[in-house]
Design a protein that fits this description.
The chain has about 280 residues and is of the alpha/beta class. It contains 10 helices and 8 strands. The protein is about 45% helix and about 15% strand. The chain binds flavin-adenine dinucleotide. Flavin-adenine dinucleotide binds near residues 95 and 98.
Length: about 280
């Protein structure tokens, strides 16, 4: 089977122990020669320093590091300063997002939507960065309509995005359909599926309810029936997600981006089954 490029996403650890564990996980994942490791950014700048620290570590280890940058609740000056810090460090790729305003934060800041951030990055730093944006095969939960969401996605591409990573999903047809629809709108950039391995059902169900990624009923029911039997949930998850990845690769997905939650095992198991060594 053809093997598209892979990438892995981390969140910035909060403690020195967390950072050590992440370094160990990264070492194992690095053996598969990913194209890049990305690091999330808490909206409103809540993880700004930790994201930057983690990016520095990854970059110093010799891997391609891609910081996420979310603009909601922020100012042009703040985002501009961070962009120049990353550029001076030698970072070449950015994942540009709107983010979600943390509860209690009153001001939306100087950017309302991610397309404005993409335009700003291009205006400030020209073609220096490869810009990734987010895509939603099952549509963003706040979108007025499916059509509007597709058109809003196109705005980010027109503003200068080079490629996209999707929200996770467990229904490959939603991804194929999304790609078909944006191609009809004239969007040609690669759209890489975001893959969420299944580690714990309760955590996944909570995430999915917030971000609008659907866990199909047959999957929910099966995982619920395993109760506290975490091994069975993980074995089931590994099977289902591996099969979906096979389908995505066979259907022409240009890459696979893994939401690792800072753990190597679940992603590695899937990738080994797909023939990555
Ligand atoms: P946008 O593209 O701005 O879209 C947000 C909503 O507004 C959509 O409903 C869209 O249809 C609508 N919209 C967009 N543009 C316009 C417009 N011009 N006019 C009217 N409506 C518009 N969050 C974080 O906080 N930190 C992270 O590190 C992070 N990483 C992520 C990585 C990936 C790959 C993905 C898929 C998501 C990530 N998120 C992260 C979550 C993301 O920030 C949220 O989903 C957020 O709600 C939307 O961000 P966006 O960049 O997709 O926003």
């Amino acid at each position: 089977m053809n093997k598209p490029h892979i990438s892995f996403e981390f969140f910035p650890p909060q403690t020195p122990e967390g950072a050590e564990k992440l370094t160990a996980a990264r070492k194992r994942l690095a053996a598969l020669k990913p194209e890049f490791f990305s690091v999330t950014f808490g909206a409103g700048g809540s993880t700004q320093d930790r994201t930057l620290d983690t990016i520095r570590h990854i970059h110093a280890e010799g891997y391609q590091a891609a910081p996420h940058l979310s603009c909601v609740g922020s100012t042009r000056d703040n985002i501009g300063a961070l962009l120049h810090t990353y550029k001076d460090l030698g970072i070449k790729r950015i994942v540009a997002l709107r983010g979600d305003l943390p509860s209690g934060m009153a001001s939306i800041g100087e950017f309302q939507y991610a397309n404005e951030l993409v335009s700003y990055i291009r205006a400030e730093t020209g073609e220096h960065f490869h810009i990734e944006v987010a895509a939603y095969p099952e549509f963003h939960p706040q979108a007025n309509s499916a059509r509007d969401d597709l058109l809003n996605f196109k705005r980010k591409v027109d503003a200068g995005a080079d490629s996209a990573i999707t929200q996770y999903f467990y229904n490959a047809d939603a991804y194929f359909r999304f790609v078909e629809e944006i191609r009809k709108l004239g969007v040609t950039i690669p759209v890489v599926p975001g893959i969420m391995p299944i580690v714990r059902y309760s955590q996944l169900a909570r995430f999915s309810d917030t971000c609008g990624a659907e866990i199909p009923r047959w999957m929910r029911k099966t995982m619920e029936s395993y109760g506290d039997d975490v091994e069975s949930v993980q074995a089931f998850g590994c099977d289902v997600v591996t099969r979906m990845c096979e389908k995505l690769i066979a259907g022409g997905a240009p890459g696979l981006h893994f939401y690792t939650l800072n753990q190597a095992n679940a992603s590695l198991q899937i990738l080994e089954r797909l023939g990555y060594r």
